[in-house]
Design a protein that fits this description.
about 270 residues; alpha+beta; five-stranded antiparallel β-sheet; two-stranded parallel ribbon; 7 strands; globular
Length: about 270
């Protein structure tokens, strides 16, 4: 009888533990869905404000938006402030892999050449097989998830421009790549830009990598803090040049959602 009681107790304890885990997972999943809906709402409000202003986004814009009683930070960034993996030249790609990726010089050069070869490979119709999304870099031999994770926030696959970068729209990590790894210079440019200084001096950057043209392609990102302290990051790449059938004055190219755990330091 005692053995039977002990066995039943163990079974009951295991079932209780499993149920608690499932409840915790369901609660977390529900909170993430709610956070994504809130972030999407905040992004919609930010995009509507841009349309109403009838002014192009020339540099990174940060704003605080409250939606349904939740305050969120929303960032709007022109996509030409990122590195275009479909058009960036070998020198820029080499810097990307060496500085942001942390690869030795020889390995960075080889990886940059592998990316160019992958995007120039022809399909059966003779067309270049461009990257449809940033995640397509994982198909390039030698690029594992760890390397991709270090680079993903600096990249875009949605531009079809010069392959150069607009320093007025570039985040600090991209500016650091343009500055050859000089973090101090990158921070100086970012600080001057964000303070509203007219005529920010970018002459110390390699001019062959720069393009100050204006684009109507942007990345909108909302950060939503959850109850456990983790951050849900919702991103949308948006084209203001194209409207949609439902009447929205922009076209969403792609969306993504990821969660940053509470124990990581947030920027």
């Amino acid at each position: 009888v005692l053995w039977i009681v002990a066995a039943l107790s163990i079974i009951a304890t295991g079932i209780t533990h499993t149920l608690r885990q499932e409840v915790r997972m369901m609660t977390q999943a529900r909170q993430q869905v709610e956070a994504q809906a809130l972030g999407d709402g905040a992004i919609q409000i930010a995009l509507q404000a841009i349309v109403a202003s009838n002014q192009p986004v020339r540099q990174v814009v940060q704003t605080e938006i409250t939606y349904r009683g939740v305050a969120m930070r929303v960032q709007i960034m022109p996509l030409n402030g990122l590195i275009d993996i479909n058009a960036a030249g070998l020198p820029l790609l080499e810097r990307l892999f060496a500085i942001a990726g942390g690869l030795p010089s020889d390995a960075a050069q080889a990886m940059a050449q592998a990316v160019v070869q992958a995007r120039e490979r022809r399909d059966e119709r003779g067309r270049s097989q461009r990257f449809e999304a940033e995640e397509d870099l994982l198909r390039v031999p030698g690029i594992g998830y760890d390397l991709y994770a270090r680079l993903s926030a600096l990249l875009t696959a949605d531009l079809s421009g010069s392959g150069r970068v607009n320093p007025m729209a570039a985040p600090v990590d991209v500016l650091t790549v343009l500055a050859g790894g000089n973090t101090g210079l990158a921070l100086q440019i970012a600080t001057s830009r964000e303070s509203g200084q007219v005529g920010v001096n970018v002459s110390a950057l390699d001019g062959s990598l720069l393009d100050t043209s204006i684009t109507r392609l942007v990345r909108a990102q909302a950060l939503v803090r959850m109850a456990d302290g983790s951050i849900v990051r919702i991103s949308r790449s948006v084209d203001f040049n194209a409207s949609t059938r439902d009447g929205a004055p922009w076209h969403t190219l792609r969306t993504s959602t990821d969660v940053e755990p509470a124990n990581r330091k947030n920027s």
